[in-house]
Records
---
Amino acid sequence: MENEINKLPTGLIPVNHYLCPGMAETKAYHEFGDFLQQRFPGKVQKISIHAGFTCPNRDGSKGWGGCTYCNNQTFSPEYCHTEKSITKQLEEGIRFFSRKYPEMNYLAYFQAYTNTYEEMSRLVQKYEEALAYPKVEGLIIGTRPDCVPDELLEYFESLSRKTFVLIEYGLESTLNRTLERINRGHTYEDSVSAILRTAGRGIPAGAHLILGLPGESREEILSHADRLSELPLTSLKLHQLQLIKNTRMGREYAGHPEAFHLYSVEEYIDLVIDFMERLHPAIAVERFVSQSPKELLIAPAWGLKNFEFTAKVKRRFKERNTFQGRLYSPRS
Ligand code: SF4
């Protein structure tokens, strides 16, 4: 694949051309939406679910207090309340989208906390409740890399022969020094092991990374792209560092703002593009930013929605006449 990329003249790479022969659209990066389109004939939408699981980094099994940046309220849409059943959450989420897109199918996205941290029978019951809901065509399971026993992966492997399953791992950084500093409670080696064991069973593995964690230089941030490119990853989500109220990191920032580099929008866009140039071109990228609710956010207050930011990134790719993987080279 590298040779194929290197043969292309400077300019945008026809990502879909080499990933999906027959599609001629020219894109600067491999979009997750295109990845889904290759698997599903019609439109699919993720519906976020709060399944009522907890997190081993909060209850003492891996650590106490959680990751220093985490306030779990920030990634749970209104309709994800623990007291609601999976079925009820899907019903409400799907009702919202189906008015506008009656043909749409859905993926149940187990998002909040650690969605593989529970007794196996209870996990399976929740996943299957979601899959039993009409028009739910698969699962996306968000979890930590140190919470995927082989027994569970065996279950996902057999499930993935019948339906779509993607396991999304919160890696956040590839540097153990940073993982320790943010109290993740796992190492990068745990992340590598989880991704290899997942992909080794033919299950798509995704990763989630935060760009701009304290103590990481610009070059260290970009080197995450090199390390992730060595892994059999299907997809990646990038997020800017956000400082959230009522978190340990928020308090650290109040005491030592000089320890943090908060990116401006333009500076972060260039960081993202530099990162993408080094990223393996086959990894589908789902997003570049996250948006925490305004009332919980300390900084940076960019005031941009995800689609607005993505449009800016796409424009910048064009201005810089570059593309995902331009600087990627496999290590020998
Ligand atoms: S970020 Fe995830 S792993 Fe970390 S404390 Fe929050 S829920 Fe737990």
---
Amino acid sequence: MHVTGSTPNLPAPAPEALAISRQLEAQIKAEIHASQGWIPFVRFEELALYSPGLGYYSNGTIKLGPDGDFTTAPELSVLFGQTVANQIAQVLDSTGGDILEFGPGSGKLALDILQALEARQQLPAHYYLLEVSADLRDRQQQRFRQEAPHLLPRLVWLDQLPEQFTGVIIGNEVLDAIPTHLVRWEADRIEEMGVSLENDQFVLAARPISDPQLLEKARQLPVHAPYLSEIQLRAAGFVSTLANTLQHGLLLLIDYGFPEREYYHPQRDQGTLMCHYRHHAHPDPLLLVGLQDVTTHVDFTAMAIAGVDNGLSLAGYTSQAMFLASAGITDLLARADQEDLARYLPLTNQAQRLMSPAEMGELFKVLALTKGIEEPLLGFMVGDRSHAL
Ligand SMILES: C[S@@+](CC[C@H](N)C(=O)[O-])C[C@H]1O[C@@H](n2cnc3c(N)ncnc32)[C@H](O)[C@@H]1O
């Protein structure tokens, strides 16, 4: 996700938006009261992002692109989806099967991938979309109705994962949006952070960890107290489920994050939680509840382990810049009409933003987990960093 600066002076929300936020706050406060005055942060984030009709991803306000809160790689440039399509085409060539995208946002990545595969005459029979937000699902359908109605018969919206799947499963910037546990390490104890109320205002508050799986993971991590960070049990659980679903093919996970050692680096002692509101980034998840995105960086070591423990092979891990370069973004650019400056110059600028280490090129990573694929993957031919996980 790319934002243009960081400031605590956030733009004032419109009255209708504030009304939604107040309603959501009231719902969360009622749950806190009903839970002896405290809910775990993971539950707070779940409600803030996904509470039906009210949560950030469910309340119908525009999230992605220039008018929203942040811009993702597919929104930034068609080159992203076209390059990812090169990787998908290589895999589908050998495995056959379909594509399944989870968290498809505005549907832009789906559209760009399908149009690129259509141009190569390699369209899969189906493109499955797993979307938890009813509002975003509507937007995805609308996009295809307007921009590529002939592709609609191939699209299948899912409410849950199928039991078995062959082909390519892909998710861009979804793991960071899956609610996370927040944990605090002190010299003599480890606690889970949650949300309670003081003078009817949300405050962060610690409690002893009651979930044995969370406690075990918190004890294993290489942190030096005092330390505050996230543990993405749910995202890892989701990757385990995807791994069990994939019978033959590729699971491609793209997001911002680091391997465990870097994620839990001593200097990152306040964790990675960030909020995005109208292209401003700040670290307070208790503000503008339901109106701002709440995200965390991804611990790619935990995601790789979740895949490998459930039968997948680690086939590659690299930066977005390396992946796009290996998968052919420069060829795509070279094929564009360089005489048509009005089209060509924006494309070069977009490629630069996708690949520059100062923008999305280095912070964003691509993790490939496969089943039953022997040949090396196109996008990881150069600069594979699997050893760093
Ligand atoms: C930051 S947006 C990214 C959207 C899009 N992939 C893109 O790159 O523009 C996160 C998306 O993940 C979806 N999401 C979150 N948790 C999910 C889950 N468990 N299964 C499927 N989608 C999920 C959200 O509804 C939203 O569409």
